[in-house]
Amino acid sequence: MPTYEDIPRPIEWITDEDLQVAKAIRKWVDEEVWPNRHKIDDDWEHHEIVKPIMKTLLVDIGYQRGVWPEDVGGLGVDSCVSFVVGAEEIARGDSGMCTAANCVGWPFLHICLPHHRNETLIKKFGPLFCDTDEMFIGCPAITDVSSGSDVENVDATHGKYITTTAKLDGDWWEINGHKIWCTNSGGFADLFGVYATTKPGEEDDEAVAVIYVPADTPGVTQGKPYKKAGMNADLNGDIWFEKVRVPAENRAQGPGLDAEYAREMISWGNVITGGYALGSMNRVYEILLDWCEHRVVAGKQLKNHSIIAGTLGEIMTMIEAVKSDTYCKARMLDRPDLYGPGHSKGMLAKTRTTKLFSTDALTDICNWAVDLMGSYGYALEYDIEKVWRDSKIMSLWMGGRSLCRLDTTRYYFNSTEI
Amino acid sequence: MNSVVFVKYVPDTETWIKVARDGKSMDPEGVKWVMNPYDEFGVEEALRLKEQFGGEVLVVSFGPPKIKEIVLQGMAMGADRGLMIIDDAAQQSDPWAVARALVAGIRDFDFDLIFCGQRGVDQDQGLLGPAVAQLLDIPQLLMVQKVEVAEDQKSLRVHRPVEGRVLVLESSLPAVVTTTKGLNEPRYATLQNILKAKKKPLDTASLSDLDLDAAEFGEEARKIKVEEMSLPPERPPITMVQGETPQEAAAELARLLHEEARAI
Ligand SMILES: Cc1cc2nc3c(=O)[nH]c(=O)nc-3n(C[C@H](O)[C@H](O)[C@H](O)COP(=O)(O)OP(=O)(O)OC[C@H]3O[C@@H](n4cnc5c(N)ncnc54)[C@H](O)[C@@H]3O)c2cc1C
Question: Which domain does A107 fall in, by range?
Fold first, then answer.
């Protein structure tokens, strides 16, 4: 009988090392994550169960060192394909945990990717993640309380609606603002990558600033985690920045470049979200495989009823299409020499379609899967409801479905007024 | 303290096994392959001894090209080097032939201990360890659950479970140890070791590179021939035990176990 590993993906782009990483993560998922799935949901507030499980991944397996270059003890992973391989495996266990783990490193793409390394900040922050036996948690602090999409809608709003401000005062930034929802907030984060504006209310890419702020800086407060419909292995809460002062060197790149690489970060985030969706789909496939084998209605196995078989066929077609597309875009980000830079508007649009397609497909697949399981699908014990609850947010974050479509059309149709 | 670990590629125990058309081998289609779980205990134990005493760990496998995955897995767990003996003749070789290939593969490695699983979860023969010990003319300690190497690294003491008791055995080194469940909890391969493994020596050899004659391997050369392979009979349907009270249900269960299943 095939397994989720038989769903085709381009193995010529996947290295032996990627496969070993996948294997290590799979063992962790099968031994530590999946058996604790119900407890993880109940643990949404205090993360007493979640934290030790996360620690195995981040510290023992070493995931938190991922993006950091080797000279500071990191692993120097700069391949989007590698991240998608990892994300598929983690999200098969728990997509919330996958979100939390990947957001540990995501804000540091700004300074770690080989074509725009910021050596000063790598030396300053890298060892905190790499030279330790404890978890050290990054947090992409993008979403403002006023609006998330406006911050991420770089090419339409050019920072105009960012409400978190950064004012240069000698050799220091003073940061004021109120962020919400950011993954790994809720008291967990140690270091924020804060999206701010240096010219409040102005439409100017040069004003978009990405500034790293340690969580223990005076003036930083993290609120309690929100109670959400799903993804309980990820903590999300309010973060207040009140007259927070950090050294001027903490800005990721500088005027213009921060906005440019924000686009790149979103491109990577789009594709890696595709990886999360794939991991969840792998799990849905496993659940359905078991269910349709053993559930007997009208005298035969569910999978042998033609109407059900048709739906299963469609589900597999969707999963295959998402795999092909996600790996294709990941590979494109890995080969800017062939496909152009990750921060180009073209790559942003092409990866936006991946996010839209993969997360919509996941929403549909979960919905079908619940249908196929009848009321059992609605019961905790049968697991599909967890995947169903955890999944929807993937299409909401990073500006939601609208922004995906806007960025796509802006590029493909040169729509200048959206 | 140098150790060798022999690792075998086997079907995952969760894989659905089908018998091939020839009626005497397994259909490889759709089979998921993994490192024999008992061999993972061997890798872990060898790494622990290395951490305790220093030295090197060599992981060796004999089979088709896909054994690379498990040799790399051993290196990703922390082994220092790997050897893949890749040859078409590996297919269907019996344990004696496999032992000959593996022993030839390590002839230039100065080892103190050889670990292998007490059996492969594929054919459950449990012959490899004894065959290796026989070929090398060194002691064999089978189905081991605890390994203690003496401070002077000249001898070892092991625990072997026997029918609810533990047999404590001592031996000189070098020796062959076959591992069983309970020996240890194999570690995760860390990302760092996985990436480091890329830079560690990983050698490939064919049977002829090891001065062995491929004609003495494979199906034809087997000393034990497989005549027929079949799946176990389907399990009878499950009986749900009924009863108004737990006591009644328990009594009924006991009756069924005694009278029908004849288990008690
Ligand atoms: C589990 C979880 C994890 C998260 N992780 C992070 C994180 O790590 N970092 C972070 O910063 N944020 C994070 N978020 C927040 C998330 O990214 C934002 O909520 C999201 O971007 C949408 O922003 P919003 O909620 O403010 O909605 P709004 O921006 O108010 O959008 C509301 C609706 O309007 C649409 N819309 C927005 N702009 C336009 C437009 N110009 N034209 C037409 N339609 C538009 C949107 O698509 C959406 O449908 C997370 C949220 C959750 C729940």
Answer: 4-130
